[in-house]
Design goal:
Layout: H1 2-7, H2 15-18, E1 30-36, E2 49-55, E3 58-59, E4 62-63, H3 68-77, H4 84-92, E5 98-100, E6 105-107, H5 109-123, E7 124-130, H6 134-144, H7 160-176
Antiparallel strand pairs: 1-2, 1-7, 3-4, 5-6
């Protein structure tokens, strides 16, 4: 089964390896899995698959233009406004979420995002498999595996309500603070 390639991959890739040019991550559709050497929260265990994502995302009227390379690289160096994984990890690590720009987007600010990127470089490892319609496999994986960092389609997970609450609290606090420059 394809899940084995994500649960027990032959190889896990670090930020340093993924962010080089040319990147080893294919510019193709697929599913990626995140493993962590140190867990982002004391209730989670390390050195195992905690999150899966897909590229492109399926939308009723179109498919996004994302691919594995763009998504994986963005998770390692982007910001919380564009990465559910980064938003989740930052909230679990206790970073302060802030409204930025017009106030609609939320990130951890320049310093917080840098801290998160460094934490991910030290602790997060990724693997992937190419898949033409990754949303089908993603649904199967979320229903069959213990993936505590996935929220969508994952309300059955034991960590789901805790993670949802932590993220909600971070958003409430961010709305109470002034917009960050």
């Amino acid at each position: 089964m394809e899940a084995i390639a994500l649960v027990s991959p032959e190889r896990l890739w670090s930020a340093q390896e993924v962010l080089v040019r040319p990147s080893p991550v294919p510019a193709a559709a697929g599913v990626y899995g995140w493993h962590f050497e140190q867990p982002p929260h004391p209730d989670l265990s390390a050195e195992r698959l905690l999150y899966v994502g897909i590229a492109p995302r399926y939308m009723a009227n179109r498919t996004s233009t994302q691919n594995l390379r763009k998504r994986v690289r963005y998770h390692y160096r982007g910001n919380a406004a564009g990465s559910t994984l980064r938003l989740t990890l930052g909230c679990l690590l206790g970073l302060e979420l802030r409204r930025v720009g017009s106030g609609k987007r939320m990130t951890f600010g320049k310093a917080g995002e840098a801290t998160l990127s460094q934490w991910m470089a030290d602790n997060a490892r990724v693997c992937w498999i190419e898949q033409n319609e990754p949303w089908t496999l993603e649904s199967q994986l979320i229903s069959q595996l213990d993936l505590p960092l996935n929220l969508d389609q994952n309300s059955h997970n034991a960590f789901h309500s805790r993670l949802k609450e932590l993220r909600a609290q971070a958003r409430v606090r961010a709305r109470e603070l002034p917009i960050s420059s």
